[in-house]
Amino acid sequence: MDLDVNIGAVNIEEEMKRSYLEYSMSVIVGRALPDIRDGLKPVHRRVLYSMHELRNYFNRAFKKSARVVGDVIGKYHPHGDAAVYDTIVRMAQTFSMRYVLVDGQGNFGSVDGDPAAAMRYTEVRMTQLAQEFLSDIDKETVDFTENYDGSLLEPVVLPTTVPNLLVNGSSGIAVGMATNIPPHNLSEVCEALVKLIDHPEMEVRDLMRWLPGPDFPTGAFILGRAGILEAYGTGRGIIRIRARAFIEKAGNGREKIVISEIPYQVNKGKLLEKMAELVKERKIEGISEIRDESDREGMRVVIEVKRDGNPMVVLNRLYKFTQMEVSLGIIMLAIVNGQPEVLTLKKVLEYFIAFRREIIIRRTIFDLRKAEERAHILEGLRKALDFLDQVIEMIRSASDPKEAKERLIGELELSERQAQAILDMRLQRLTGLEREKINNEYEELIKNIERFRAILGNEQLVREIIKEELEGIRARHGDRRRTEILEDVEDLDIEDLIADEEMVVTISHTGYVKRSPASLYRAQKRGGKGMTGVKTKAEDFVELLFVASSHDYLLFFTNKARVYWRKVHEIPEAGRASQGKAIVNLLDLQKDEKVATILPVRDFEQGKYVVMATCQGFVKKTDLTAYSRPRTGGIVGLKIREEDELIGVRLTNGNQDIFLTTQFGKSIRFSEEELRPMGRVAAGVTGIRMDPEDRVVGMDALDEGATILTVTENGYGKRTKTEEYRRQSRGGKGILTIKTTERNGLVVFAYQVSNQDQLMLMTGQGKIIRLRVADISTIGRNTQGVKLIDLAEDEKVAGVAKVMED
Questions:
Q1: Residues belonging to the active site
Q2: Fewest CB atoms within 10 Å of the CB: 159, 257, 743, 781?
């Protein structure tokens, strides 16, 4: 048999693009994303419409879930029965839906993650709220389209009076995009819609007076309003949700933590497993027992605290390490006019108002047409009753119904429909009571017709109807808010759990960082061999060492004069011999950029200044507050020449002396008042003039009564009283501070110290020694110093820091 086949060449790249785009749009529009109008995905819409067709209403008997699933997949949704049943199950779960749309009878799962029973065991029916989704669907309020095989029609969207997209939220992953809209309180959404109808100029902040934020079925707390405002204002944002817990006194004198609400979509069973695991691994101390006392009355998880345990510390650790506190990313993405769109809160509300306006207009047009058609029939019946004897005679004398209809049309001037209605009229309608009913019905219809026409001709009436319907929905189905929004939440989960103690922060040449408690390093006598402080690779060495409190802010100043911001406790903690963590994983450093120095800051207060120095001798003073909000990618701390580098940063009070030291042993002391405060991106001024081969290796802001400690690369050092360094004018060549002989080597660092300080030295090979500054002699300025540390051949001092003793 000959077949007429048309075969042509196709570009496979173009065909793949076209096919994948068609698939993507099918997933986006037909499966994963909700419609802006009814807030439903196709599967949810088909479930509700099938239940409507089955008359599976809230005030009727339950039907087997399998019956509903069969109708859905057989008529409208050609996919697996498991997917449809999972949808029905979720629509019936009170912990998944803020307002359930399916009334389930049987086992529909639990918040512990237990699965629902098989569909043959469970029964369902629509809730009263779900029926609001289908009100007026028989009045041509929405368009219908063919089902998958063209045998039936299904609605494109449901004519819901419920603002479901916000009320129940939605989540789904499409191709290249995703949506995650949290649920809200029905009463609050309706109130916000009414206010927006009255005041369409309102912005998001105004709307949040009536719709303050999401309202989850599981309650709990939302921490702060900033994330909510961002999500409502831009369509994207992140909020933090925290479990509701409180502390009770136990009968045995101990205390216990009781959890009554957990964050949305958190599995309680897995949450308890995680708690038990953390207790077993000793990551959380102070818990003696965990038990679940939840029942039909509500959730109750009890955590027994040990007699010597602190319940607040235990609770804060639970917030930190478990899903008792979670972050929820909000993406308000929905299908608008067949296209995916990220929406603000105001846009979502405006689209729903526009949808309800369209529904009301289409419903009114339908009602007007039906009323006019009925009025037309009643006008014919009334005329027939007025000429009753004549009508009876015409009908009796007619040879057949056709002739009777023609005579009625011709002699009484009736339409064909009116004549047919008269012929179809039963004799009982001729009684006086029936005639009165016809007249009353006709008068009522005339009033309705006038009202329908008024609605269609008056936009204000349409808005009033929308408001009335929203008020009705709120009155019938609204309830109180479950999730509490906390205005200002203290970050107890971080600061409360970390002891305020001195930490040694080290950074190696190849960019590894760590913190360790200063107590790990015991003090030794001067001239000792030291002990290993950092285990480094052969090609690596420790380049920077700093001591700061664990609660301090750390301003990371790089050699390129950019500034990054971290807290000390955010630096990974490790033992003395550990290498630490790559700093590139903590800071978003640029190419060829490395940390030059760290400035610990407790608070960003007025009256404090940051003084910086570069290796070419430039200095600059800037107000501390200018560095209080660095961005993730860092900020410019100083405009610097390409061949120059930042070497020192100090925090000052504005009235101190600045001390600079070069590697050739020169130093200069000048008043900070010679430095006028400059902007953050200014280039600075000359601090010291040097030989071309020389470079600045240290800077400090002098305090009263301190001595200058100078350390050379060969392990020698000395202390010199600050009085021996006269104050000079900024920009001079300075004076000698230590002899840089072959024995000493070049100067590595110069610090001011006191007798109460301790000194830490670290070599390039990772050896560290801790000395008491009081053990180091105070000698003159123009001297060589004494040996501080025994160095192996080719070993050099690489890092120096001082430690304040209590």
A1: 121
A2: 743
